Amino acid sequence: MSERREPPWRLPTAAEAETVMPPEIDTTKPHTARIYDYMLGGKDNFEADRQVAAQVLQAIPDMQNTLRLNRQFLRRAVRYTVRRGVTQFLDIGTGIPTAGNTHEVAQELAPEARIAYVDHDPIVLAHARALMAGDGRGRTTFVQADLREPEKILSATEIQNVLDLDKPVTLMLVSILHFIRDDEDPHGIVARLVDALAPGSYLVLSHASLDPNPQQGAEGAAQWRNASSTMTMRSHADILRMFQGVELVEPGLVSDWNPDGEPDEPGLSLANVWGYGGVAVKR
Ligand SMILES: C[S@@+](CC[C@H](N)C(=O)[O-])C[C@H]1O[C@@H](n2cnc3c(N)ncnc32)[C@H](O)[C@@H]1O
């Protein structure tokens, strides 16, 4: 007999899932957040997610390294903008928490940092309690919303309660825009969000790319099928066009973004990276 529980839930183990998972979270269908969690070595995933992950990794074995580099990019970019005085974050495409999430990295340097996380997937909502944890000096909130509706995100009361959008904010679009199809206008979505930011705000953006081998990239992206989102890997030029109305900081849109010369995390390779990250400032 299935049992409905109100959020926030504890994420059940795989064995418990069939009896306690809320009905809107279907563990037999692959979810983007859980596929990603599996590729990063997390435990919050199910057989359907692991099958998609295995197929993507078969087509693009270096994808796991790329995803780990992406997490390193996220952490570096958060530190970069906090060091330049921006302590408010709008992080869209939260994912399932791993170590070193935006609020943890930001609040380590600036305990008063405020973070609004946004994700459209109920599975991520199930983890929201972990994201809310903090030492009470800053604030963290989680909003379930869709990147394809930027106006709804910007006007959400929960976000306005935590962030002052009249002051600089770091907008994080990290490893999410490849889940927006061309016909959903990813460039226009970024432009609408950037337009709402105060001067002095930052855009932190990373994106999967097929540049190392377009045919292999297309095959890998095609494996991300039947999941909660499809994947569109793009070229450097296409991703660069997302930085409109903002000024890229050095070193630009690159595979190994490291302006402060931090050491790479152990075991990472800089060869064959299937993605780029960049940080830009709004003047
Ligand atoms: C690959 S994870 C990235 C997590 C984190 N930003 C990182 O880079 O480690 C992508 C996340 O974006 C979310 N996502 C995908 N499409 C979305 C959409 N249209 N609106 C909101 N969230 C979305 C997924 O549910 C998933 O949690």
UniProtKB/TrEMBL annotation:
Bilayer-crossing regions: none
Keywords: Methyltransferase, Transferase
Keyword Transferase: yes
GO MF terms, alphabetically ordered: methyltransferase activity
SUPFAM superfamilies: S-adenosyl-L-methionine-dependent methyltransferases
InterPro entries to which the protein is assigned, alphabetical: SAM-dependent_MTases_sf, SAM_dep_MeTrfase_SAV2177_type
Listed GO biological process terms: methylation
Domain of life: Bacteria
Protein's name according to its UniProt entry: Methyltransferase domain-containing protein
